[in-house]
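Researcher: I'm preparing a figure for a lab meeting and need a structural model of a single chain. I don't have an experimental structure, so a prediction will have to do for now. The sequence is pasted below. Please return the structure as C-alpha cells so I can convert it later.
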Amino acid sequence: MTKLKITVLPAVVLLTLVSLTSLAWAGDIRGKVTAQGVRSAENTAVYIDSVPGKTFPPPAQHAVMDQSYLAFVPHVLVVLKGTTIDFKNDDTVGHNVYWPAINHDKKLAHNMGTWPQGISKPFTFDDLGDVPLLCNVHPEMSGHIVVVPTPYFALTDKEGSFTIKNVPPGQYTLKTWNVDGKPGTQAVTVGAGVANVTLTVTK
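Model: Understood. Here is the structure written out cell by cell.
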C-alpha cells in the first residue's frame, strides 16, 4: 500500500503542474469588429473554428434563451456544439418557438410548440451554424442562436469590441457571424499575453 502511494503521488503532482503550466501560458484574443455596409457590428459572434487535435465535450450547464417583453433574450446567443438550451417564457402571454433552418438547411427546421408563462423547454443543438428563432404567435419577434465548434468564442458589444479568454498558444483562424453581413475569417497567433486583432464585417 505504501509503495502504491509513493508511485501515484508524483504522477498526480506532475499532472497538476502540467495543467497549471498550460493555464499560465494561455492567452487572450482582444479585438474590435467594424461594420461596412451593415447596420451594426454589435452582436457579432467571433470564434476560433478549430484547435488541432482537440475535441470539446458540451457543457453540463444549460444555456438559457428567454422570452420576455415580446422579445428573445438575449437577441443573439452563442453556444458550443452539443449545448442544451432551455427556452423559457417569462411573459404573461403564450409564446411559440421555431426555426425554419439551421445554417440554411431547411431539413433541420423544428417547431418547439407553444407554451405559457413559467414553462421551460430544452433542446440540444448538435448542428453548427446560425439558428434563426421566430414565434408563430408574435411575428415581430426574432432572435438567433449561433452554434460554434469550440468553446473559444465571444459576442461583440455596442462598440464592436470583444475578448476571448484563456486560449491555448497556437495559430488559429477566427471566424465571424453577423446577421446582416457575410461570414469573415482572420488569422491570429496566440501566445502568453494578449493578441490584438481587427476584423471587418461587410454586406
